[in-house]
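Entry:
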Amino acid sequence: MLKQLITWPAIEWEGAVINQTVWGDCEWTDYTLAVDVCLDAPYNYGCISGRVTETHRSHKEPEAYTLRLFSSGKWELRTAEKVLEKGFLSLEKGRWYTLKLKMSGNQIQAYIGNECVADLEDETYAKGMAGLGSSFHPIYFDNLSIRIIHLFNTHCCGHPV
Protein backbone atom coordinates (compact mmCIF):
# COMPACT_ATOMS: atom_id res chain seq x y z
CA MET A 1 0.00 0.00 0.00
CA LEU A 2 1.15 3.53 -0.80
CA LYS A 3 -0.05 6.51 1.24
CA GLN A 4 0.17 10.04 -0.14
CA LEU A 5 1.46 12.00 2.88
CA ILE A 6 2.21 15.43 1.45
CA THR A 7 -0.64 17.58 2.73
CA TRP A 8 0.43 20.93 1.30
CA PRO A 9 2.38 22.05 -1.76
CA ALA A 10 6.03 23.02 -1.50
CA ILE A 11 7.18 26.54 -2.31
CA GLU A 12 5.23 27.51 -5.42
CA TRP A 13 7.78 29.19 -7.70
CA GLU A 14 5.51 28.91 -10.75
CA GLY A 15 2.01 28.92 -9.28
CA ALA A 16 -0.03 26.05 -7.87
CA VAL A 17 1.37 22.60 -8.59
CA ILE A 18 -0.19 19.23 -9.37
CA ASN A 19 0.94 16.35 -7.17
CA GLN A 20 2.00 13.51 -9.50
CA THR A 21 4.43 10.62 -9.98
CA VAL A 22 5.29 9.04 -13.34
CA TRP A 23 7.21 5.91 -14.31
CA GLY A 24 7.63 3.44 -17.13
CA ASP A 25 8.71 3.66 -20.73
CA CYS A 26 8.10 6.60 -23.04
CA GLU A 27 7.52 4.09 -25.88
CA TRP A 28 4.62 2.20 -24.22
CA THR A 29 1.65 2.37 -26.57
CA ASP A 30 -1.11 -0.08 -25.71
CA TYR A 31 -1.55 -1.00 -22.06
CA THR A 32 -3.97 -1.24 -19.17
CA LEU A 33 -3.22 0.62 -15.95
CA ALA A 34 -5.18 0.03 -12.73
CA VAL A 35 -4.93 0.98 -9.07
CA ASP A 36 -7.19 0.88 -6.03
CA VAL A 37 -7.68 4.23 -4.33
CA CYS A 38 -9.21 5.14 -0.97
CA LEU A 39 -10.42 8.70 -0.51
CA ASP A 40 -11.25 8.98 3.18
CA ALA A 41 -11.23 12.76 3.58
CA PRO A 42 -13.39 15.47 2.02
CA TYR A 43 -12.21 17.65 -0.88
CA ASN A 44 -9.60 15.26 -2.21
CA TYR A 45 -8.97 13.23 -5.35
CA GLY A 46 -6.86 10.40 -6.69
CA CYS A 47 -6.01 9.78 -10.33
CA ILE A 48 -4.16 7.59 -12.78
CA SER A 49 -2.59 8.76 -16.02
CA GLY A 50 -1.68 6.81 -19.14
CA ARG A 51 0.47 7.68 -22.13
CA VAL A 52 2.17 10.45 -20.17
CA THR A 53 4.39 12.40 -22.55
CA GLU A 54 5.20 15.40 -20.37
CA THR A 55 4.64 16.74 -16.89
CA HIS A 56 4.91 20.40 -16.00
CA ARG A 57 6.39 22.19 -13.01
CA SER A 58 3.26 24.28 -12.63
CA HIS A 59 -0.51 23.99 -12.33
CA LYS A 60 -0.85 22.71 -15.90
CA GLU A 61 -2.28 19.20 -16.32
CA PRO A 62 0.15 16.48 -17.47
CA GLU A 63 0.18 15.68 -21.18
CA ALA A 64 -1.64 12.36 -20.76
CA TYR A 65 -4.99 10.63 -20.46
CA THR A 66 -5.99 11.12 -16.83
CA LEU A 67 -8.84 9.48 -14.95
CA ARG A 68 -9.55 11.48 -11.78
CA LEU A 69 -11.96 10.51 -9.01
CA PHE A 70 -12.95 13.13 -6.42
CA SER A 71 -14.19 12.30 -2.91
CA SER A 72 -17.46 14.04 -3.84
CA GLY A 73 -18.14 11.32 -6.42
CA LYS A 74 -17.34 13.54 -9.38
CA TRP A 75 -15.05 11.90 -11.94
CA GLU A 76 -13.45 13.00 -15.20
CA LEU A 77 -11.41 11.54 -18.03
CA ARG A 78 -9.28 14.26 -19.54
CA THR A 79 -6.28 15.26 -21.57
CA ALA A 80 -4.08 18.21 -20.65
CA GLU A 81 -6.32 20.53 -22.63
CA LYS A 82 -9.86 19.20 -22.33
CA VAL A 83 -12.30 17.01 -20.43
CA LEU A 84 -13.27 14.06 -22.66
CA GLU A 85 -15.99 12.57 -20.39
CA LYS A 86 -17.26 13.34 -16.89
CA GLY A 87 -19.88 12.12 -14.48
CA PHE A 88 -20.86 11.47 -10.89
CA LEU A 89 -20.95 8.32 -8.75
CA SER A 90 -22.22 7.81 -5.24
CA LEU A 91 -19.16 7.01 -3.09
CA GLU A 92 -18.81 5.69 0.43
CA LYS A 93 -16.21 7.35 2.64
CA GLY A 94 -13.30 5.05 3.44
CA ARG A 95 -14.13 2.49 0.73
CA TRP A 96 -11.63 1.35 -1.92
CA TYR A 97 -12.39 2.05 -5.60
CA THR A 98 -10.49 0.68 -8.57
CA LEU A 99 -9.48 3.16 -11.26
CA LYS A 100 -8.53 1.62 -14.60
CA LEU A 101 -7.46 3.01 -17.97
CA LYS A 102 -7.23 0.78 -21.02
CA MET A 103 -5.51 2.26 -24.07
CA SER A 104 -5.30 0.37 -27.34
CA GLY A 105 -4.69 2.30 -30.55
CA ASN A 106 -7.06 5.25 -30.50
CA GLN A 107 -9.56 3.40 -28.26
CA ILE A 108 -9.57 4.72 -24.69
CA GLN A 109 -11.65 3.10 -21.95
CA ALA A 110 -11.98 4.26 -18.34
CA TYR A 111 -13.39 2.18 -15.49
CA ILE A 112 -14.31 2.92 -11.90
CA GLY A 113 -14.85 -0.36 -10.11
CA ASN A 114 -16.33 -2.75 -12.65
CA GLU A 115 -18.23 0.00 -14.47
CA CYS A 116 -16.98 1.33 -17.79
CA VAL A 117 -17.59 5.07 -17.37
CA ALA A 118 -16.02 6.15 -20.68
CA ASP A 119 -15.39 4.38 -23.99
CA LEU A 120 -14.19 6.67 -26.75
CA GLU A 121 -11.78 7.21 -29.61
CA ASP A 122 -9.08 9.86 -29.27
CA GLU A 123 -5.73 10.38 -30.98
CA THR A 124 -4.21 13.03 -28.69
CA TYR A 125 -1.53 10.72 -27.24
CA ALA A 126 -0.17 7.62 -28.98
CA LYS A 127 2.42 6.52 -26.41
CA GLY A 128 3.89 7.36 -23.05
CA MET A 129 4.51 6.46 -19.43
CA ALA A 130 2.10 5.77 -16.54
CA GLY A 131 1.34 7.97 -13.57
CA LEU A 132 -0.41 8.41 -10.23
CA GLY A 133 -1.63 11.70 -8.84
CA SER A 134 -3.56 13.13 -5.93
CA SER A 135 -4.63 16.26 -4.16
CA PHE A 136 -2.54 17.37 -1.21
CA HIS A 137 -4.42 15.17 1.28
CA PRO A 138 -3.73 11.74 2.77
CA ILE A 139 -4.82 9.30 0.05
CA TYR A 140 -4.19 5.56 -0.17
CA PHE A 141 -3.21 3.58 -3.27
CA ASP A 142 -2.95 -0.21 -3.50
CA ASN A 143 -2.81 -3.06 -6.02
CA LEU A 144 -1.13 -1.11 -8.80
CA SER A 145 -0.99 -3.11 -12.04
CA ILE A 146 0.16 -2.49 -15.57
CA ARG A 147 -0.53 -4.93 -18.37
CA ILE A 148 1.33 -4.19 -21.58
CA ILE A 149 -0.77 -5.06 -24.60
CA HIS A 150 1.69 -3.88 -27.27
CA LEU A 151 5.11 -2.20 -27.27
CA PHE A 152 5.84 0.43 -29.92
CA ASN A 153 9.43 -0.74 -30.41
CA THR A 154 12.44 -1.96 -28.45
CA HIS A 155 13.94 1.47 -27.83
CA CYS A 156 13.17 4.06 -25.20
CA CYS A 157 13.91 7.68 -25.93
CA GLY A 158 16.51 6.62 -28.51
CA HIS A 159 18.19 3.98 -26.32
CA PRO A 160 17.80 0.17 -26.57
CA VAL A 161 15.95 -1.43 -23.68
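DSSP finds no helices and 14 strands in the chain.
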